[in-house]
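thread: overnight batch results

M.L. [08:02]
morning all. the overnight job finished for the chain we discussed friday. pasting input first so we're all looking at the same thing
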Amino acid sequence: MLKQECSINKYFVQGDEAIAEGAIAAGCRYFAGYPITPASEISETIARRFPEVGGVAIQLEDELASIHSVGGASVAGMKAMTVSSGPGISLKLEGLGWGIKNELPYVVVDVQRAGPSNGVATRVGQGDLYTVKYGSAGGNNSIIAISPMNVQEAFDLTIDCFNLSEIFRTPVFLLTDETVGHTRELLVIPDARELKIVPRRKPTVPPSEFLMYPLNTPGTIDYPYPNIGEGYGICVSPYTHTAKGYATTSEKDHDKMATHLVRKVTDHLDRLTRVQEEMLDDAEYGIIAYGCEARPAMEAMKKARAEGIKVGFLRPIIIWPFPDEPIYRMACKVKKILVPELNRDGQLSREVQRAAKGRAEVYHLGSGGVETHQPVHVYDELMRIIKGK
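M.L. [08:03]
and the structure it wrote out:
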Protein backbone atom coordinates (compact mmCIF):
# COMPACT_ATOMS: atom_id res chain seq x y z
CA MET A 1 0.00 0.00 0.00
CA LEU A 2 1.98 3.02 1.27
CA LYS A 3 5.75 3.15 0.94
CA GLN A 4 6.37 6.01 3.37
CA GLU A 5 5.53 6.64 6.99
CA CYS A 6 2.62 8.91 6.07
CA SER A 7 2.13 9.33 2.33
CA ILE A 8 -0.26 12.11 1.29
CA ASN A 9 -2.85 10.60 -1.02
CA LYS A 10 -6.25 8.96 -1.32
CA TYR A 11 -6.65 5.21 -0.99
CA PHE A 12 -9.43 2.66 -1.35
CA VAL A 13 -8.84 0.36 1.63
CA GLN A 14 -10.49 -1.66 4.38
CA GLY A 15 -10.97 -0.24 7.84
CA ASP A 16 -8.47 -2.76 9.20
CA GLU A 17 -5.82 -1.46 6.81
CA ALA A 18 -6.66 2.12 7.81
CA ILE A 19 -6.09 1.21 11.48
CA ALA A 20 -2.62 -0.10 10.63
CA GLU A 21 -1.78 3.09 8.74
CA GLY A 22 -3.14 5.23 11.57
CA ALA A 23 -0.85 3.43 14.00
CA ILE A 24 2.15 4.08 11.77
CA ALA A 25 1.21 7.75 11.40
CA ALA A 26 0.91 8.02 15.21
CA GLY A 27 4.48 6.77 15.64
CA CYS A 28 3.76 3.16 16.61
CA ARG A 29 6.84 1.06 15.91
CA TYR A 30 6.17 -2.08 17.94
CA PHE A 31 3.38 -4.56 17.32
CA ALA A 32 2.74 -7.92 18.95
CA GLY A 33 -0.29 -10.07 18.26
CA TYR A 34 -1.81 -13.43 17.55
CA PRO A 35 -3.94 -14.15 14.45
CA ILE A 36 -7.71 -13.88 14.81
CA THR A 37 -10.50 -12.86 12.47
CA PRO A 38 -11.81 -10.27 11.76
CA ALA A 39 -8.68 -8.44 12.95
CA SER A 40 -6.17 -10.39 10.85
CA GLU A 41 -5.88 -7.77 8.12
CA ILE A 42 -4.47 -5.31 10.67
CA SER A 43 -1.71 -7.75 11.59
CA GLU A 44 -1.05 -8.57 7.94
CA THR A 45 -0.79 -4.92 6.94
CA ILE A 46 1.50 -4.14 9.86
CA ALA A 47 3.71 -7.17 9.10
CA ARG A 48 4.14 -5.84 5.57
CA ARG A 49 4.50 -2.15 6.44
CA PHE A 50 6.59 -2.08 9.62
CA PRO A 51 9.84 -3.16 7.92
CA GLU A 52 9.39 -0.16 5.59
CA VAL A 53 9.26 2.30 8.49
CA GLY A 54 11.77 0.75 10.89
CA GLY A 55 9.20 -0.94 13.11
CA VAL A 56 9.11 -4.35 14.77
CA ALA A 57 6.14 -6.67 14.23
CA ILE A 58 6.05 -10.02 15.99
CA GLN A 59 3.56 -12.86 16.22
CA LEU A 60 3.71 -14.49 19.64
CA GLU A 61 2.42 -17.81 20.91
CA ASP A 62 -0.81 -16.47 22.36
CA GLU A 63 -2.80 -13.38 23.32
CA LEU A 64 -1.42 -13.13 26.85
CA ALA A 65 2.16 -13.11 25.62
CA SER A 66 1.36 -10.47 23.01
CA ILE A 67 -0.17 -7.94 25.40
CA HIS A 68 2.64 -8.37 27.95
CA SER A 69 5.14 -7.94 25.12
CA VAL A 70 3.44 -4.68 24.14
CA GLY A 71 3.61 -3.55 27.77
CA GLY A 72 7.31 -4.29 27.87
CA ALA A 73 7.90 -2.34 24.66
CA SER A 74 6.02 0.62 26.13
CA VAL A 75 8.21 0.60 29.24
CA ALA A 76 11.22 0.64 26.90
CA GLY A 77 9.91 3.84 25.31
CA MET A 78 8.20 2.57 22.17
CA LYS A 79 4.69 3.37 21.03
CA ALA A 80 3.11 -0.05 20.85
CA MET A 81 -0.12 -1.78 19.83
CA THR A 82 -1.84 -5.16 19.88
CA VAL A 83 -5.06 -6.23 18.16
CA SER A 84 -7.64 -8.96 18.58
CA SER A 85 -11.35 -9.78 18.61
CA GLY A 86 -13.74 -10.93 21.34
CA PRO A 87 -12.28 -14.35 22.28
CA GLY A 88 -8.73 -13.00 22.11
CA ILE A 89 -9.58 -9.86 24.04
CA SER A 90 -10.84 -12.10 26.86
CA LEU A 91 -7.39 -13.71 27.00
CA LYS A 92 -5.62 -10.36 26.98
CA LEU A 93 -7.45 -9.05 30.03
CA GLU A 94 -4.91 -10.29 32.58
CA GLY A 95 -2.17 -8.36 30.80
CA LEU A 96 -4.47 -5.38 30.39
CA GLY A 97 -4.87 -5.10 34.17
CA TRP A 98 -1.08 -5.08 34.52
CA GLY A 99 -0.87 -2.29 31.96
CA ILE A 100 -3.60 -0.23 33.62
CA LYS A 101 -2.11 -0.60 37.08
CA ASN A 102 1.39 0.32 35.91
CA GLU A 103 0.02 3.21 33.80
CA LEU A 104 1.56 1.95 30.56
CA PRO A 105 0.66 3.90 27.40
CA TYR A 106 -0.28 1.56 24.53
CA VAL A 107 -3.24 0.78 22.27
CA VAL A 108 -5.46 -2.30 22.10
CA VAL A 109 -7.67 -2.76 19.04
CA ASP A 110 -10.83 -4.87 19.46
CA VAL A 111 -12.52 -5.74 16.16
CA GLN A 112 -15.81 -7.04 17.55
CA ARG A 113 -17.47 -10.12 16.09
CA ALA A 114 -20.62 -12.13 16.79
CA GLY A 115 -20.41 -13.94 20.13
CA PRO A 116 -20.42 -15.27 22.77
CA SER A 117 -17.27 -17.39 22.75
CA ASN A 118 -16.05 -18.02 19.18
CA GLY A 119 -19.52 -17.27 17.80
CA VAL A 120 -19.44 -16.54 14.07
CA ALA A 121 -15.77 -15.85 13.54
CA THR A 122 -15.82 -13.50 10.57
CA ARG A 123 -19.14 -11.69 11.10
CA VAL A 124 -20.10 -8.60 13.01
CA GLY A 125 -21.21 -8.16 16.61
CA GLN A 126 -21.18 -5.53 19.35
CA GLY A 127 -20.85 -7.64 22.47
CA ASP A 128 -17.59 -6.29 23.92
CA LEU A 129 -18.78 -2.93 25.24
CA TYR A 130 -18.70 -4.10 28.85
CA THR A 131 -15.69 -6.37 28.31
CA VAL A 132 -13.36 -3.47 27.59
CA LYS A 133 -14.77 -1.43 30.47
CA TYR A 134 -14.99 -4.03 33.23
CA GLY A 135 -12.89 -6.96 32.02
CA SER A 136 -9.67 -6.41 33.97
CA ALA A 137 -9.61 -8.05 37.40
CA GLY A 138 -10.24 -6.05 40.54
CA GLY A 139 -11.85 -2.90 39.15
CA ASN A 140 -10.46 0.29 40.69
CA ASN A 141 -9.76 1.93 37.33
CA SER A 142 -11.36 3.86 34.49
CA ILE A 143 -10.77 2.98 30.86
CA ILE A 144 -10.75 4.99 27.63
CA ALA A 145 -12.29 3.49 24.48
CA ILE A 146 -12.97 5.12 21.11
CA SER A 147 -15.22 3.74 18.38
CA PRO A 148 -15.06 4.57 14.63
CA MET A 149 -17.99 4.30 12.23
CA ASN A 150 -16.12 4.31 8.92
CA VAL A 151 -12.73 3.81 7.28
CA GLN A 152 -11.58 7.42 7.61
CA GLU A 153 -12.35 7.41 11.31
CA ALA A 154 -10.54 4.09 11.68
CA PHE A 155 -7.38 5.96 10.66
CA ASP A 156 -8.07 9.21 12.49
CA LEU A 157 -9.26 7.67 15.76
CA THR A 158 -6.34 5.24 15.91
CA ILE A 159 -4.09 8.30 16.09
CA ASP A 160 -6.34 9.71 18.82
CA CYS A 161 -5.98 6.46 20.77
CA PHE A 162 -2.21 6.77 20.77
CA ASN A 163 -2.38 10.43 21.76
CA LEU A 164 -4.75 9.75 24.66
CA SER A 165 -2.63 6.83 25.82
CA GLU A 166 0.33 9.19 26.19
CA ILE A 167 -1.65 12.03 27.79
CA PHE A 168 -3.40 9.77 30.31
CA ARG A 169 -0.59 7.20 30.61
CA THR A 170 -2.92 4.24 30.18
CA PRO A 171 -3.87 1.54 27.69
CA VAL A 172 -6.56 2.85 25.33
CA PHE A 173 -9.01 0.74 23.30
CA LEU A 174 -10.04 1.26 19.72
CA LEU A 175 -13.39 -0.52 19.95
CA THR A 176 -14.35 -1.21 16.36
CA ASP A 177 -16.23 -4.06 14.65
CA GLU A 178 -16.09 -6.44 11.70
CA THR A 179 -18.23 -4.26 9.45
CA VAL A 180 -16.00 -1.21 9.87
CA GLY A 181 -12.91 -3.43 9.69
CA HIS A 182 -13.92 -5.09 6.42
CA THR A 183 -15.66 -2.17 4.71
CA ARG A 184 -13.59 -0.86 1.81
CA GLU A 185 -13.94 2.86 1.10
CA LEU A 186 -12.04 6.10 0.70
CA LEU A 187 -9.20 6.94 3.07
CA VAL A 188 -7.50 10.32 2.83
CA ILE A 189 -4.00 10.43 4.32
CA PRO A 190 -3.14 14.06 5.17
CA ASP A 191 0.24 15.70 5.21
CA ALA A 192 2.09 14.50 8.31
CA ARG A 193 2.55 18.14 9.32
CA GLU A 194 -1.22 18.41 9.70
CA LEU A 195 -1.40 15.55 12.19
CA LYS A 196 -1.30 16.23 15.91
CA ILE A 197 0.96 13.57 17.43
CA VAL A 198 1.59 13.51 21.18
CA PRO A 199 5.16 12.36 21.95
CA ARG A 200 6.31 10.41 24.98
CA ARG A 201 6.88 12.83 27.84
CA LYS A 202 10.25 12.61 29.61
CA PRO A 203 11.07 13.62 33.21
CA THR A 204 12.51 17.06 33.77
CA VAL A 205 13.95 16.30 37.21
CA PRO A 206 16.86 14.00 38.14
CA PRO A 207 16.14 10.36 39.09
CA SER A 208 16.59 11.09 42.81
CA GLU A 209 13.66 13.53 42.71
CA PHE A 210 11.33 11.70 40.34
CA LEU A 211 8.21 9.85 41.52
CA MET A 212 7.21 7.11 39.10
CA TYR A 213 3.50 7.43 39.90
CA PRO A 214 1.71 10.70 40.81
CA LEU A 215 -0.32 9.14 43.61
CA ASN A 216 -0.05 12.18 45.86
CA THR A 217 -1.90 14.28 43.27
CA PRO A 218 -4.75 12.02 42.10
CA GLY A 219 -6.15 12.82 38.70
CA THR A 220 -2.83 14.07 37.33
CA ILE A 221 -2.34 13.65 33.58
CA ASP A 222 0.41 14.65 31.12
CA TYR A 223 2.81 12.99 33.54
CA PRO A 224 6.23 11.88 32.22
CA TYR A 225 7.21 8.25 31.76
CA PRO A 226 10.96 7.52 31.74
CA ASN A 227 12.35 4.72 29.62
CA ILE A 228 14.21 1.75 31.03
CA GLY A 229 17.95 2.38 30.83
CA GLU A 230 17.85 6.12 31.40
CA GLY A 231 18.80 5.97 35.08
CA TYR A 232 15.32 6.24 36.55
CA GLY A 233 13.91 3.65 38.91
CA ILE A 234 11.10 1.88 37.06
CA CYS A 235 9.09 -0.61 39.11
CA VAL A 236 6.38 -2.45 37.21
CA SER A 237 4.64 -5.39 38.85
CA PRO A 238 1.08 -6.66 39.32
CA TYR A 239 1.03 -5.56 42.96
CA THR A 240 -0.10 -2.37 44.64
CA HIS A 241 2.67 0.20 44.68
CA THR A 242 3.71 3.44 46.33
CA ALA A 243 4.47 6.62 44.38
CA LYS A 244 8.05 5.32 43.97
CA GLY A 245 6.74 2.04 42.58
CA TYR A 246 7.60 -0.17 45.55
CA ALA A 247 5.19 -2.94 46.53
CA THR A 248 2.97 -2.24 49.54
CA THR A 249 0.09 -3.85 51.40
CA SER A 250 -1.00 -0.65 53.13
CA GLU A 251 -4.70 0.17 52.81
CA LYS A 252 -3.82 3.86 52.58
CA ASP A 253 -1.33 3.28 49.75
CA HIS A 254 -3.73 1.00 47.92
CA ASP A 255 -6.53 3.54 48.12
CA LYS A 256 -4.22 6.25 46.81
CA MET A 257 -3.34 4.12 43.80
CA ALA A 258 -6.95 3.11 43.09
CA THR A 259 -8.19 6.69 43.46
CA HIS A 260 -5.63 7.97 40.98
CA LEU A 261 -6.37 5.25 38.41
CA VAL A 262 -10.04 6.25 38.46
CA ARG A 263 -9.72 10.00 38.76
CA LYS A 264 -7.12 10.53 36.06
CA VAL A 265 -9.97 9.70 33.67
CA THR A 266 -13.08 10.89 35.51
CA ASP A 267 -11.56 14.27 36.45
CA HIS A 268 -11.09 15.09 32.76
CA LEU A 269 -14.44 14.38 31.14
CA ASP A 270 -14.17 17.72 29.33
CA ARG A 271 -11.37 16.14 27.28
CA LEU A 272 -12.96 12.71 27.03
CA THR A 273 -16.54 13.45 25.99
CA ARG A 274 -16.92 13.31 22.23
CA VAL A 275 -20.22 12.68 20.46
CA GLN A 276 -21.80 13.28 17.09
CA GLU A 277 -25.18 15.01 17.32
CA GLU A 278 -27.59 15.42 14.41
CA MET A 279 -30.97 17.21 14.23
CA LEU A 280 -31.40 17.46 18.00
CA ASP A 281 -32.47 21.11 18.29
CA ASP A 282 -36.15 20.40 17.62
CA ALA A 283 -36.17 16.61 18.03
CA GLU A 284 -39.12 14.86 19.64
CA TYR A 285 -37.64 11.37 19.26
CA GLY A 286 -34.04 10.15 19.31
CA ILE A 287 -31.80 7.37 18.06
CA ILE A 288 -28.47 6.48 19.70
CA ALA A 289 -26.00 4.07 18.08
CA TYR A 290 -22.25 3.58 17.72
CA GLY A 291 -19.81 1.91 15.36
CA CYS A 292 -21.28 0.23 12.30
CA GLU A 293 -24.83 0.64 13.63
CA ALA A 294 -24.55 4.43 13.41
CA ARG A 295 -24.84 4.49 9.64
CA PRO A 296 -28.20 2.69 9.29
CA ALA A 297 -29.44 4.66 12.31
CA MET A 298 -28.68 7.96 10.59
CA GLU A 299 -30.36 6.81 7.39
CA ALA A 300 -33.48 5.93 9.40
CA MET A 301 -33.38 9.39 10.96
CA LYS A 302 -33.16 11.03 7.52
CA LYS A 303 -36.12 8.99 6.24
CA ALA A 304 -38.21 9.98 9.25
CA ARG A 305 -37.23 13.64 8.83
CA ALA A 306 -38.25 13.50 5.15
CA GLU A 307 -41.70 12.45 6.34
CA GLY A 308 -41.93 15.34 8.77
CA ILE A 309 -41.17 13.33 11.91
CA LYS A 310 -38.78 15.20 14.21
CA VAL A 311 -36.08 12.64 14.95
CA GLY A 312 -32.56 13.40 16.19
CA PHE A 313 -29.44 11.26 16.41
CA LEU A 314 -26.52 10.91 18.84
CA ARG A 315 -23.40 8.76 18.45
CA PRO A 316 -20.83 8.21 21.20
CA ILE A 317 -17.38 8.49 19.58
CA ILE A 318 -15.46 8.20 22.83
CA ILE A 319 -17.64 5.47 24.29
CA TRP A 320 -15.75 5.06 27.60
CA PRO A 321 -15.98 7.12 29.69
CA PHE A 322 -19.64 7.04 28.71
CA PRO A 323 -21.07 10.42 27.55
CA ASP A 324 -23.66 10.73 30.30
CA GLU A 325 -24.14 14.48 30.05
CA PRO A 326 -24.92 14.73 26.29
CA ILE A 327 -27.28 11.76 26.55
CA TYR A 328 -29.06 13.31 29.52
CA ARG A 329 -29.48 16.55 27.55
CA MET A 330 -30.97 14.56 24.69
CA ALA A 331 -33.31 12.72 27.05
CA CYS A 332 -34.56 16.05 28.38
CA LYS A 333 -35.59 17.05 24.84
CA VAL A 334 -37.17 13.90 23.40
CA LYS A 335 -39.98 11.59 24.43
CA LYS A 336 -38.50 8.27 23.34
CA ILE A 337 -35.02 6.99 22.43
CA LEU A 338 -34.32 3.97 20.23
CA VAL A 339 -30.96 2.19 20.65
CA PRO A 340 -30.06 -0.24 17.85
CA GLU A 341 -27.08 -2.48 18.66
CA LEU A 342 -25.70 -5.89 17.71
CA ASN A 343 -26.24 -7.78 20.94
CA ARG A 344 -29.28 -9.22 22.66
CA ASP A 345 -28.38 -8.22 26.21
CA GLY A 346 -28.78 -4.49 25.67
CA GLN A 347 -25.32 -3.25 26.65
CA LEU A 348 -25.51 0.20 25.06
CA SER A 349 -29.24 0.46 25.83
CA ARG A 350 -28.59 -0.13 29.51
CA GLU A 351 -26.02 2.66 29.64
CA VAL A 352 -28.33 5.02 27.77
CA GLN A 353 -31.16 4.24 30.18
CA ARG A 354 -28.87 4.93 33.13
CA ALA A 355 -27.68 8.23 31.67
CA ALA A 356 -31.21 9.32 30.69
CA LYS A 357 -32.30 9.16 34.36
CA GLY A 358 -35.92 8.53 33.45
CA ARG A 359 -36.33 11.71 31.38
CA ALA A 360 -37.15 9.70 28.22
CA GLU A 361 -38.29 6.15 27.49
CA VAL A 362 -35.42 4.01 26.15
CA TYR A 363 -36.03 1.13 23.73
CA HIS A 364 -33.56 -1.59 22.77
CA LEU A 365 -33.43 -2.82 19.16
CA GLY A 366 -31.20 -5.84 19.52
CA SER A 367 -29.71 -8.49 17.31
CA GLY A 368 -27.31 -11.33 18.00
CA GLY A 369 -25.09 -9.98 15.26
CA VAL A 370 -23.78 -11.55 12.03
CA GLU A 371 -25.58 -8.87 9.99
CA THR A 372 -25.99 -5.18 10.77
CA HIS A 373 -29.45 -3.70 11.03
CA GLN A 374 -30.65 -2.26 7.74
CA PRO A 375 -32.01 1.31 7.75
CA VAL A 376 -35.52 -0.04 7.17
CA HIS A 377 -35.25 -2.18 10.30
CA VAL A 378 -34.35 0.84 12.42
CA TYR A 379 -37.00 2.98 10.74
CA ASP A 380 -39.75 0.39 11.21
CA GLU A 381 -38.90 -0.04 14.89
CA LEU A 382 -38.81 3.71 15.35
CA MET A 383 -42.28 4.02 13.83
CA ARG A 384 -43.54 1.22 16.05
CA ILE A 385 -42.42 2.90 19.28
CA ILE A 386 -43.62 6.33 18.14
CA LYS A 387 -47.06 4.89 17.53
CA GLY A 388 -46.93 3.06 20.86
CA LYS A 389 -47.49 -0.40 19.39
